[in-house]
Design goal:
The chain has one helix spanning 2-26; strands spanning 30-37, 40-49, 57-58, 74-78, 94-104, 110-116, 121-123, 130-131, 142-149, 169-170, 177-181, 195-202, 212-213, 216-222. It contains one helix and 14 strands. It has two domains: 2-58, no CATH class; 74-222, Sandwich (Immunoglobulin-like). The model is unreliable at 3-26 (pLDDT under 50). The radius of gyration is 40 Å and the shape is rod-shaped. Strand 2 and strand 3 form a beta hairpin. By secondary structure, it is mainly beta. 11% of the residues lie in helices and 36% in strands. The strands form four sheets. The chain has a five-stranded antiparallel sheet, with no helix packed on it.
Length: 224
């Protein structure tokens, strides 16, 4: 009789243990769904329920990209189409200026270069005659370019606009010279020119009479 009772107790205990195990399994956290991205299974993730009422289910899809693009812009406005130095007086420098305004969203700013087409002010009737400091035409004069940056119109922290200031430079060839160089974006404000470019010419008493011209090319490079 005692053995029978012991067997019954063991049976009841086993059933209780089995029931508890099954109950625990039923109420353990479980996957009830998934999170995914259309067309890309690498984002797939399980959504896990805590098997409770009240309860919650959680899943995270990670790494969704947000993209945007800003197209590059750059503008350069030159204040006039010519620099007229007028009638030159021997030994007296005659100067003229242009203002240049830039607007750009180039992350690393812009560089502006200028070059003379003929390396001097050239006589329109005889291109062997030039106003510059060379003596190949038998007479030495002066022909120079200068530039200076003006009031900063960029609000970007760290903007530097005067590294490209050009000291007075004699022009004897068609090499490009940097007249403005910046490192950050800047707004366009034609009422506040970014750089002033100056041309100066000085003749002497033996400079042949006539009309003299030079043609300038201004090149701007955006450093995006």
């Amino acid at each position: 009789m005692i053995k029978t009772k012991i067997k019954k107790v063991l049976a009841v205990t086993a059933i209780a243990a089995l029931t508890t195990t099954q109950f625990a399994n039923v109420f353990a956290a479980s996957t009830i769904g998934s999170g995914s991205v259309t067309g890309d299974t690498s984002f797939d993730t399980n959504i896990i329920w805590d098997d409770a009422f009240p309860g919650s289910a959680t899943g995270t899809v990670s790494g969704i990209t947000v993209k945007a693009q800003i197209l590059p812009t750059i503008n350069m406005v030159i204040s006039a189409k010519e620099i007229d130095l007028g009638v030159l007086t021997a030994g007296t420098p005659s100067t003229g200026t242009l203002d240049i305004e830039v607007g750009t969203n180039a992350a690393n700013g812009v560089t502006i270069r200028v070059k003379s087409a003929s390396g001097g002010l050239t006589n329109t009737s005889d291109n062997s005659l030039q106003i510059n400091n060379l003596t190949t035409d038998g007479s030495q004069e002066n022909y120079t370019f200068t530039s200076s940056a003006n009031v900063i119109d960029s609000t970007v922290t760290g903007f530097d606009g005067d590294d490209g200031d050009l000291a007075s430079t004699e022009i004897t060839n068609s090499n490009e010279l940097v007249i403005y160089d910046t490192n950050k974006p800047e707004i366009s404000n034609v009422d506040n020119a970014d750089v002033t470019f100056t041309v100066s010419a000085t003749s002497n008493a033996q400079t042949p009479a006539g009309d003299y011209e030079d043609y300038l090319d201004f090149t701007i490079v955006g450093n995006f």
